[in-house]
Amino acid sequence: MMSFPAISFRICLLTGFLASFALEPLRASRFFNLFSPDLFVQFNIQLTAEGEIRYSVYADKKTLIKQGKMGFHLLGQAPLEKGFRWLSIDTSSVDERWEPHWGEERQLRKRCSRMVVQFEQTATGKRLDLECMVFNDGVGFRYHFPSSGRHEAFILADELTSFPVTGDHDAFWIPGDYDTNEYAYALTPLSKVHAAKEVWPHGIGFRSPVSDSTVQTPLTMRTPDGMWLSIHEAALVNYPAMQLDIDRKELGLKAHLVPDGLGNKAYLRLGDHTPWRVLLIARRASELLTNRIILHLNEDPPETDCSWFKPGKYLGIWWEMHLGTHSWAGPRSEGDSLALPHGATTGSMLRLIDFAAANGFSYVLAEGWNRGWEHGDGGWSERKFSFTEAYPDVDLPRISEYAKDKGVGLMMHHETYGAVTDYERQLPAALDLMEKLGYKGVKTGYVGRIVPRGEHHDGQWMVNHYLHLAQFTALRKFFLVSHESVRPTGLHRSYPNWFSCEAARGNEFNAWSAGNPPEHETILPFTRLLGGPMDYTPGIFPVAAGSGDSLALRRVHTTLCKQLALYVTLYSPLQMAGGKLEDYESHPGPFQFIRDVPTDWDSTVVLDAMPGDFVYTARRKRGSGDWYVGMITDELARKYPLRLDFLEPGRKYVARMYADAPDAHWQTRPMAYKITEQTVDARDVLNIRLAPGGGCAISLKAEE
Amino acid sequence: MMSFPAISFRICLLTGFLASFALEPLRASRFFNLFSPDLFVQFNIQLTAEGEIRYSVYADKKTLIKQGKMGFHLLGQAPLEKGFRWLSIDTSSVDERWEPHWGEERQLRKRCSRMVVQFEQTATGKRLDLECMVFNDGVGFRYHFPSSGRHEAFILADELTSFPVTGDHDAFWIPGDYDTNEYAYALTPLSKVHAAKEVWPHGIGFRSPVSDSTVQTPLTMRTPDGMWLSIHEAALVNYPAMQLDIDRKELGLKAHLVPDGLGNKAYLRLGDHTPWRVLLIARRASELLTNRIILHLNEDPPETDCSWFKPGKYLGIWWEMHLGTHSWAGPRSEGDSLALPHGATTGSMLRLIDFAAANGFSYVLAEGWNRGWEHGDGGWSERKFSFTEAYPDVDLPRISEYAKDKGVGLMMHHETYGAVTDYERQLPAALDLMEKLGYKGVKTGYVGRIVPRGEHHDGQWMVNHYLHLAQFTALRKFFLVSHESVRPTGLHRSYPNWFSCEAARGNEFNAWSAGNPPEHETILPFTRLLGGPMDYTPGIFPVAAGSGDSLALRRVHTTLCKQLALYVTLYSPLQMAGGKLEDYESHPGPFQFIRDVPTDWDSTVVLDAMPGDFVYTARRKRGSGDWYVGMITDELARKYPLRLDFLEPGRKYVARMYADAPDAHWQTRPMAYKITEQTVDARDVLNIRLAPGGGCAISLKAEE
């Protein structure tokens, strides 16, 4: 140990296996290894002859990341790139159990090896520390910029972190974009990532594409060996989102931080740290879906009362607007004539409340209740909406009174069209109004260009805005769901009132664009949802809105049963039943599943899954013995022998199965379904058939 | 009238004299004249053969502005520059009296001719309307962008308004700068305006100079004929500040709007209008100081209760910090050692409260009470200060309790160092704290670069921030005084809780830079103060802080009596006694004037004044018969026979005169003064002698 040159070396809480592996390389000189508890994953850190920090990741004795760079370029200062020496290495092992407020499991276990390496840049005396955690199924590391007193400020011109993979992996990717992630996914080898060569089903309101070879994270890949990797980040706070530049020749992936309008990446101070850079590793694709590293790398929330927000389902005026039969915009004054009937009228709201109360929905949302929609998108102007003034045909006090009588919670809608600073200015009054009216939560939206001008949806300033909103709404006891916000990085652990966000291509694209291909929902759990829950707004019954081409265009690209199954396969503590009430009323059979399915779970089993092909998931309802199964496929029909061995042995269950009819097909017969009921137990196997673009939803109610 | 081609011509409320002058030119074809009520000022509007809008201004039959341009360049749209036709002209006359909540006069009379001209750009069908008011002492006009329904958004790339003057006027100017106006003034002919050729006494924290030939407004000029002009703006709302580009050869002045980080000028929507472009006109310099056009062009505040804020004087911990004997930064934890003693400790505050109570001051302010100062300027980071956490040696509840017992109001200090979005986010909690502690008002500061990055102190976004703050503080019943904010444009009429701002080179520069030249305070009323009150923070007793050069550097560049006189010559409803308590205690004689002088007035008489030379002002205390006189000079000694004919005839007054001693001199004997008292009446003449850099203050208390 003492032969290791110029290191003040400490090992804290060094466990046996750690020591045995950790000390060996130290007898060489300039590198250090950290192993996962089961030794499957190895993280290697070293200094080159020039004092550059390099890391490698191995799993199952294969190299996954080879000599990745670490460091930063600073604005107006020498780069934090080379000339480093070791100051110290602390290692420890972590094994702790914790319970999320809500989630896919009741309890989670964080088990990993942890290391903090202190580096000093000799020439400048500057410190750069690295914190690293190695799990059995992946790695996370982050940088610290230690302060020795004053919080001196500095500006990041670039983060140098790279992820040099060791093969031409197949990657599920969406193009780099500073302002949106509402793309469908492409699947190509890394060497063939070329945004301009793909056909994108767009319809996106505002885009800021980066380059043809930049992609967003989570970036999920399959190695030629059949391993699965996903690169993402955890705990994105006071920092821009990370995208990845791909070097198609060298197969290098390099961090590409979303800049501000001046081209700078992040404004930090000594004492700050970066988010975690995360590599998820799985031998089988389905294991990625229960990888909880990103949650583990986030912090618990402060000790506060969280009893006031409850996961649940909501209804709203929404699909009608996307179909174009109703409008967000209301009348300027009473009796004003409109091109389309206004959606969020008092009458519509009362009907929604009645329906919610009758069918066990917790919440009701009305989009388009407030003034501003009548002026179009407002360009790039600073103020676009009032968040306190309702249209004259929206009687807020009456709606509130009615909802209260019926025991239904109300959600407020705050679309900003990107005018964020004005939204923040109106926020105290807006929340005062919500409090006065007894609202429970708020759904935000950020369609369009951001004000402050030059800022992007995924840049540091907006990242801080979303968190400010999560904190400010929590203070006032409102839950939050955000659309067009930055994609999640596990922060729902720390901010549990921030139930979910959109931050991906949602169901609404089916209503007014080329839509989402049938494979879309099978890819989302492997990419976007690795970071956190999504408000996909499923539950659209694909009733024909026209015929011929128009039929295919203006409705979801799934069978009815697949819409049901999405409530299980796409996790969110807050799920919308996005469809029209008339469609639910005229199809009480399949609607029963939406009524029954919960949104909070004790345990989750991924039976089998393959991105782009299928996802089969079973979950047990929180505090209950009941199970729910969701199975979805892409454009291909599939058969699957569903073994019920996840059920409690010896217990009987009433299984109600919502299955595609034999002739169902997402394009031609999306509404063809068959509902059957039988008693089953853990020894049974159900033979499931999924139609092209189809799905199957099953409720399994435990008998007492 | 009917011979005027292609005009739908209406004249509303047309008064006799208007009609007689207005109709004559219409018989010609493409121009229209509007005269001031006394016919002294004439405003001419015309269309060129290409349909360009041009205006001219005449006074006393001399041309002041000759063929000024009007119009705009739009981003991505055809310019609003030519091809206009007249749609209609409405004229009316205005004669109304109104009362400001506080001010230099109890009642004001707005008397002018008003005109609204509707233009249409034939090729595009776009409307551009011009609203114009012609007063006996100047002109104001603004543009409207009429909406016919939806508020379509557009972006101004440039405002084309120009002010082509007709001679090489002598101009008092400071250089164009997007982020500061804390310059001393230069006096040159317009043809010689060249920022790089002047020697500027700087010390300014952060500057964004524009060009060598750009200057800021108010720009005050003397014509070769001896007329006085000043160009400024009124009611700057949702628009960037206007600076002026000077064409040194053609003597053209063109609007130069402060851009955002992307180079755009303003983001507007149909239905919006610009601020007023204002030309003040005076035959004698002193008349400029009672020109109230800028106030007249602002709106009355909404009908709200304004009884909760009261003009007054305040004390603070301030000069000590600027002298460098105490620090804003406090200890991180109790017992932490500091390089300088902390200024705003509980002990200092209690002493200030005692002193304020004993001497009739309304308010006490402590700068440096809150955490953040210990980290330096914070660079360009997003969060720099906490506005709710006090240093451990500042016991806020105890201070508040003590102030309440003594009947003294407290003012909170909110320095942002430019981190404005974070300040807005903290504002609700900060104001909650102020309310809980019983504070009366807040002093803000904006030293440094603005966040949102790319925005400037004087751009549209920040202009809206200042107004947001004025409104939000009013809602919570706090008054506001802002430093480093955009220079005022009469908005204190509409937002009377926004007492004053700095927005010019204040007294503090004397403590740590080459300071302010003795002429500085004689120029401010003719320039910066035309827009509104200034928090200059006078009352520094020029006690030597060292000797030799250091003596001249680290103290105000005036005699003691001039510091007293500034309370009258530099108007503000909120005046600080900026000096150290020890200095006041050791000089009770001159301090008596600061104790006595009020900050709210019934009437104001400018006895004589010349920018750069001297200002002699008398004001009558609001609701009282008492008068106060302030007389200041530049570096030259002056004599002046002060005729007291502004006093009420036949009434006796006790005049207490605070005069420079015969050997007083701002550089060598600044503290030499003589206080005399005598009984006077309106027939008396006092022979006043002002020392170099000196002044004279007089209180005249009416006998019952």
Stretches of chain A where pLDDT is under 50 for at least 5 consecutive residues are 1-28
CATH topology tier name of the domain at 3-296 in chain A = Beta-galactosidase, Chain A, domain 5
Overall form of chain A: globular
* Average of per-residue pLDDT values of chain A: 93
Strand percent estimate of chain A? 25-35%
For the largest sheet of chain A, list the strands in their spatial order.
6-7-8-9-19-15-14-11-12
- Biggest beta sheet summary of chain A: 9 strands, antiparallel
Taking the alpha carbons of the first and last residues of chain A, their distance comes to: 62 Å
E-strand count of chain A: 34
CATH architecture title of the domain at 3-296 in chain A = Distorted Sandwich
Give me the oligomer status. homodimer
Please bin the fraction of helical residues of chain A: 10-25%
Helical run tally of chain A? 14
Structure description:
Two copies of one chain form a homodimer. Helices cover 17% and strands 32% of the residues of chain A. In chain A, helix 5 (346-359) runs parallel beside helix 6 and helix 12 packs parallel to helix 14. With 704 residues, chain A is α+β, with helices and mostly antiparallel strands. Among the domains of chain A are: 3-296, Beta-galactosidase, Chain A, domain 5; 310-503, TIM Barrel (Alpha-Beta Barrel), CATH 3.20.20. In chain A, a hairpin with a 5-residue loop joins strand 28 and strand 29. Chains A and B meet through strand 10, strand 18, helix 7 and helix 8 of A and strand 10, strand 18, helix 7 and helix 8 of B.
